[in-house]
Design goal:
about 250 residues; alpha/beta; Rossmann fold; 2 domains; five-stranded parallel sheet; about 45% helix
Length: about 250
């Protein structure tokens, strides 16, 4: 996957705030995002308006770090933030969905967004004790990795509400059970070894064994007297309910 290019806009409120933005951008790069920041990509003598305009045009996303000072400057149209506001507003007019712009709130009070971003959903980074939750939310958007899959439309209108939660997109148990189903589909044997199941996945053997162990603990598979795996009745129900095989 090509790392998403993300331009970070912020106001130079203080040395502390500038340092926080640098740590924030560094963390994004460490976690697979091509973050663009003036502290790396600009040097004395460079053209600031040209840099802003070029990067906003090139980026996949633009993160707007909304401190109190940024909001004040953007609403008043002052300084670099004011110029950038003009470009972003024009970009929003051209892109009706506007999903290129992600406000990140970093404030001691609020949250408050600039007027031109009022309608947008934001990620709140104001509470340092919850920063990992905020990073997870942001990164899942930037990397197109939602926590849950959107369920397919079912055929049973009377399926109970209890336990009706969607699958996680990175669900190792579901991946292992999918591999088990594929292995049994291609085999005439009533039970299969780990080595036989492993032929149907790129998953590391240790990871596969871990999730098979979880499947066993949840009653989805069992192991016969010679150490081979069998799909249980509960396992068959799991495969049907998760759309892995037809009923």
């Amino acid at each position: 996957m090509t790392p998403p290019r993300v331009f970070i806009s912020y106001s130079h409120d203080s040395a502390e705030h500038k340092g926080w933005v640098l740590e924030f951008a560094t963390t994004l790069r460490n976690r697979g995002v091509d973050a663009v920041l003036d502290q790396w990509d600009l040097k004395p003598g460079d053209d600031l308006p040209h840099f802003m305009e070029t990067e906003l045009a090139r980026c996949d996303y633009a993160i707007i770090v909304c401190s109190e000072t940024y909001v004040t400057k953007a609403n008043a149209g002052k300084g670099g933030v004011g110029y950038e506001k003009m470009i972003v507003t024009a970009s929003l007019l051209e892109r009706i969905d506007g999903n290129k712009i992600i406000p990140v709130v970093r404030q001691s009070s609020g949250p408050v967004l600039p007027t031109f971003l009022k309608s947008k959903l934001y990620v709140n980074f104001s509470n340092d004790s919850e920063v990992e939750y905020s990073l997870d939310e942001l990164l899942r958007t930037l990397l197109n990795a939602p926590l849950f899959e959107k369920p397919a439309i079912g055929s049973s209108p009377f399926k109970p509400l209890h336990g009706a939660k969607p699958d996680r997109t990175a669900d190792g148990l579901k991946a292992a059970m999918t591999t088990v189903a594929q292995a049994f589909e291609k085999s005439h044997y009533p039970a299969l070894s780990v080595s036989q199941i492993l032929n149907f996945t790129d998953m590391h053997r240790l990871k596969l064994e871990r999730y098979l162990s979880q499947a066993k603990s949840e009653g989805l598979v069992s192991i016969n007297s010679i150490g081979k795996y069998i799909v249980t009745d509960d396992g068959f129900t799991y495969l049907v309910n998760h759309g892995i095989i037809d009923a």
